[in-house]
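Tip: read the tokens left to right.
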């Protein structure tokens, strides 16, 4: 069990195998309300809906499901309005709370709606993808998209509990699994050489599914994310920026290739390889460390080279990234476990690195 220490907004992250069955008991113990409004997607509902509703009912809690279509398109005003209206219809006893059971899209949509419904009702994150378990379920950033960009309408709103059940990962396909592993590699690289070493040792066996060996890895990543969020809950002190390692070009690549072209983790893996190249070219990082990072990424089946795309298409969204504030700021690396924020990286250098990473 990991605690995210944020004064009265503190909460626990429970990572384990089979912990979903304890959802109802934990919600009841935390006194979140009597009526659980469960937001999910069609796949998660079909596969885990029964476990969720039985667990809630065993604890004496009423529940209903709101099933949002799979994919980023659900992070929209239309879906948000449908959800809020269904939530208001269900909220007869005025004791409603929200359960977000799904990947990052469900977590962001449900978390945002929980933040704005009646100016905030309690919500619980039940992340069902590896990516969501190690990253998006923790930290309290919730958002929906505008056509001008992703996550442009949002709120900081912490969950009351995060329940990460590794057994749910059995249903992930290889690409989804690898996408989550990209974020675990990122945590090792930015913060924890021991985690990085563990991932190197386990890479041969950890290729998919719901292995219990993932539990300490998910716990380590959650602890790192929690520690960073504790220091910079609202993204104000600059501490959260290191979580962006590989994401500056990663986000740009996702946008340039069209969402769905690369998974988030694949784009971040390429972004991390580029960040290592930039670090090397600026004389910050040694060749051996850069090689280890690239090998670890490829051992999880992640790409480190990108399909050709016009540099303009990459540079444009990256320069518009809301974290940029007009400066070409990159999270780079001086060694594994030691990130470094570098301002004013010349665009010409970024262009060279990107060109050398095209297949
Ligand atoms: N919800 C993701 C974050 O706060 O980073």
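Filled-in amino acids:
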């Amino acid at each position: 069990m990991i605690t995210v220490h944020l004064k009265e907004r503190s909460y626990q992250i429970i990572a384990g195998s089979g912990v979903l069955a304890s959802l109802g008991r934990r919600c009841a113990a935390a006194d979140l309300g009597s009526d659980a409004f469960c937001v999910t997607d069609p796949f998660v509902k079909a596969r885990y809906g029964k476990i969720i509703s039985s667990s809630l009912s065993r604890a004496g809690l009423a529940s209903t499901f709101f099933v949002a279509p799979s994919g980023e398109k659900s992070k929209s005003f239309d879906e948000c309005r449908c959800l809020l209206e269904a939530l208001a219809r269900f909220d007869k006893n005025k004791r409603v709370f929200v359960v977000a059971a799904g990947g990052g899209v469900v977590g962001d949509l449900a978390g945002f709606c929980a933040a704005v419904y009646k100016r905030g009702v309690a919500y619980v994150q039940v992340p069902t993808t590896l990516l969501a378990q190690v990253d998006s379920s923790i930290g309290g950033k919730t958002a929906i998209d505008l056509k001008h960009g992703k996550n442009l309408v949002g709120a900081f709103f912490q969950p009351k509990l995060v329940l990460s059940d590794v057994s749910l990962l059995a249903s992930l396909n290889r690409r989804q699994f690898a996408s989550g592993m990209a974020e675990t590699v990122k945590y090792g690289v930015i913060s924890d050489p021991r985690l990085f070493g563990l991932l190197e040792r386990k890479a041969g066996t950890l290729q998919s599914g719901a292995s219990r060996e993932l539990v300490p890895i998910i716990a380590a990543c959650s602890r790192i994310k929690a520690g960073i969020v504790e220091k910079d809950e609202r993204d104000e002190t600059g501490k959260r920026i290191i979580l962006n390692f590989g994401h500056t070009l990663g986000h740009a690549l996702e946008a340039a290739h069209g969402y769905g072209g690369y998974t988030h983790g694949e784009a971040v893996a390429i972004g991390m390889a580029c960040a290592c190249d930039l670090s090397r070219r600026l004389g910050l990082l040694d060749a051996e460390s850069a090689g280890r990072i690239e090998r670890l990424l490829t051992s999880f089946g992640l790409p480190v080279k990108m399909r050709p795309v016009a540099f303009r298409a990459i540079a444009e969204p990256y320069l518009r990234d809301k974290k940029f504030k007009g400066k070409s700021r990159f999270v780079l690396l001086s060694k594994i476990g030691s990130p470094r924020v570098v301002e004013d990286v010349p665009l010409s250098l970024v262009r060279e690195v990107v060109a050398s990473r095209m297949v």
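The chain has a mean pLDDT of 94. The first strand starts at residue 2 and ends at 4.
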